[in-house]
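Q: Sequence in, structure out?
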Amino acid sequence: MNFTKKMFQENATLEDEVHVAGDSESWHIFMIVFQVILALGITFGNTLVIASFWKFEPLRIVSNIFLVNLAVADLLVGILAIPIRIAFVNLPMVRQDMQMFLQELKESLQMSPFCFLWQIASVLLLLASLFTLAAIAIERFVAVRMPFRYIELCTTKRCVLVCAFIWALSIVMSVLCLAFVKEQLGNTCRMADLTSPTYFKCILAPCIGFVFLVSWVLNMCTFYTARKAVKCSINILRDNKASEWQMLSTYKVTVTAFLVLITFSLCWIPSVFFTAVGIPKKYGVFQDVVILLLFANSSMNPIIYGLRLPLFRRAFAKILKRENGSIATSNYSSENA
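A: Exactly. Output:
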């Protein structure tokens, strides 16, 4: 009996410590500093990707259009989503005058506009990234499984139109949350305290689940086909350097797209799961860690491109060194190094 009582007391003490840590001023100062560094890294890396695509003609190919669209979504995380969260979630916990101002704003408007702005921005960027990953999966599937129809099906004009459709659909679905506002708002900026469960269960969750599943199935099929083709053709094409390079290049881009999807999944699944289930307020520190994880995802793609894709790597180097000239090479072996 005493042992059980002691165990409950220790658990209660631990929960109190977690709660206090999540609400303490020092924790929010750490969150502000970390998010500022993250935002700068996200902005720098994704601006580098966009600038490389814009400046160097060899990068302006169909498959890279979707990578740049993903970079735009990630860039908006750094210049929009993170600053909104710092301003309306972390700063009020450090500066009492700002907390009073936001409370007065909330009472005067009978709602939490900054919370809805944060929610719309986060859902918008989540959907834009997810839909773009699905577009990448489809483009890679066509490139590997239907190579002779690739030029016919995946034109520059069609890819640009797909990107425009992705943003339009993402905006509509994110703003749609305003049609499901709760009559009695909660005290936090969590989706569960702002919108009806109907929005997540009947609209957002099915959409995310379906697109996520399609992306994974297509990527796995494409990866398996590309890997099998490389193994079967490597000896046959040994004397044809151009064809061998083209095969390896297609395989490398396919693997890169798969890695981008894997990192996206690892970073976003915890956030989507806890949004559906809900994290008790006393575990606010865990909620902050989950949000930092999804923010961190926006900084990973430029690193993946630089490590995996030689043309992007050379473009990054030339921009950072302020050098001019072409990034293309006629050396097939160095191209795949």
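The two ends are 66 Å apart (CA to CA).
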